[in-house]
């Protein structure tokens, strides 16, 4: 074995090590990245040639956590790792989005990157090391790649920026971004923040990029030491320069005219299709399919150049808007009468129908991952059916795109949700995209805000979101920042930058960059332009509803939260759950209880007030503490020769001695009471053992003493 190790300092004494040459040597490239006890194995394999007709990079990136890494056995029937969890998909997407732009445009070989968590330190998060591991595997291979890149997590904790903080410290973070980049540029950002200002975000990105530069330099050294400085030769595209010139000559002006017409999405698409079809009709009948495929490829290049030149030279966008103009917005709340909250949000040709469902603690989602496990009470699901773009596409469940878009919207909305006792509900938000032409994830944020307010959830502030684009010309230095981008502007542009926030600041963002050389000056300008757009959209939203409804919907379930002393948790549950089950059966309410901070947190969930009130009364009776001097209506539980035991509260019996039943002397208990009788008693005393002394006679009129006999 020729084992090579490189290590670097994160800047505070914590070390990260990269090792190659020991594991998975039949892969084109493999490394193990280690920080503390966390270890990631990354491998990359790429086929020697490309499949005929392929004009894109078939790249797959899979991140998977091995349960053995954390000393756990998977749950479920199979007891083995199965399909990737949402958490693993999100990390896979982070790495994919960082790597994909840096492969050569003409490289079309099937390429697979696999990253496995093989050892887990419970306090060191593996996701911020996954991008480094993937890039290092490429660095020690002969696969063409314009890297290296790396990914880091930057967080501000206790007012200080930190790279790859410990999991235990993240709870105190006011901003948290995963940032990917090369030595020269940032290529990907995703994260959340507590309503920060644009300047603070740029500061965090610069801090992250400084750390990335160090990690890229180490990978360059690794490439040199492994002798992988020369990459494989390939030829995945056959070109016909004469055909390319003809396509440009025959179609460019026509495409430019359609792009300049300001027509709608369908009309514009039909116009472009008509142009290429006309070109095909003019070709000889015996033209080879490969030639037609090449012509179609060149036509895409024509569209790319024409749309960008139109914007840079004349400042005209595909739909005729200015660079800062937001498409028309309309919204409506309460559209779904049976939902607990709902909203329709439409911006241009993008529309989201969003619903809110309120549930109990029993509805929380259990997260059973190798590294992350527990429960979460806020769920957001995003659906993108084929009809939203006029396509026929089978419904096969949520794909990676749906999971990623939903996660961004969830990051945004969870920042403004009430916490603790102010929000006893498990909340599920579902966004169904009914139309799409640009940033349906941002429409989800806006519709989600409206639906939550319609449901009566007391969010801290409304949140809006906007997608920003960028068109640049490296030769002339011209650039244009676009607000509220269309789908075509996203596809043909150089940047997709989504920003969400309240009127007070940014709460989440996601950026993907497709070019080199984005300056912080341009980034700052884009953020400030996004702020103007966000506030405009927020203003349109608040015309529909400006603050949460005062109360929940009449048909929404109700939850009452109680905090009881720890000592009463067992009394409420009862032996084997007997008491709590009986209360649920008799009241119709759902009751859950857990110990938090040496207190019992009780949540009572029901769909009507009567059930809630009955359950609350039963629990309050159980946890109430008897007070000396108080009068209680109790039930005779048992009769003894020396008196009776009377239950004055659920589970709390006191002794009513025979001498305290009546003012007259009783010789026996025969015939005085029977079990089940309801009587009033007064609590006289509680001794050190907690035994209660009751009296009934003190509540009865005291008989007058008989008059003394006359002398």
Secondary-structure topology with pairs:
Layout: E1 4-9, E2 15-20, E3 29-35, E4 38-46, E5 59-65, H1 86-99, E6 111-119, H2 127-139, E7 150-157, E8 160-163, E9 173-181, E10 186-196, H3 198-226, H4 241-260, H5 265-282, H6 289-314, E11 329-333, E12 341-347, E13 350-359, E14 365-368, E15 373-376, E16 378-383, H7 400-414, E17 426-435, H8 440-454, E18 464-472, E19 479-483, H9 487-492, E20 495-502, E21 505-513, H10 520-542, E22 558-565, H11 569-573, H12 578-587, E23 590-596, E24 599-606, H13 609-623, E25 631-640, E26 643-649, E27 652-657, E28 678-686, E29 692-695
Helix pairs in contact: 1-2, 1-7, 2-3, 3-10, 4-5, 4-6, 7-8
Alpha-carbon Rg, integer: 34 Å
Sequence of strands across the biggest β-sheet: 8-7-9-10-21-20-18-19
| SS strand fraction | 25-35%
Oligomer: single chain
Largest sheet: 8 strands, antiparallel
Poorly predicted runs are none
Q: What's the number of helices?
A: 13
Q: Which of globular, elongated, flat, extended, rod-shaped describes the shape?
A: elongated
Would you count the extended β strands for me?
A: 29
Helicity level: 25-40%
Structural class: alpha+beta
Instruction: State the separation between the terminal residues, measured CA to CA.
Output: 126 Å
Task: Look at the structure and give the mean pLDDT.
Answer: 92
Walk me through what this model shows.
The model has no long low-confidence stretch (mean pLDDT 92). The chain is 29% helix and 30% strand. Strand 16, helix 7 (400-414) and strand 17 (426-435) form a beta-alpha-beta unit. It is an alpha+beta fold. The protein has an eight-stranded antiparallel beta sheet with strand order 8-7-9-10-21-20-18-19, with helices on both faces. Strands 1-2-3-4-6-5 form a six-stranded mixed beta sheet. The termini are far apart.
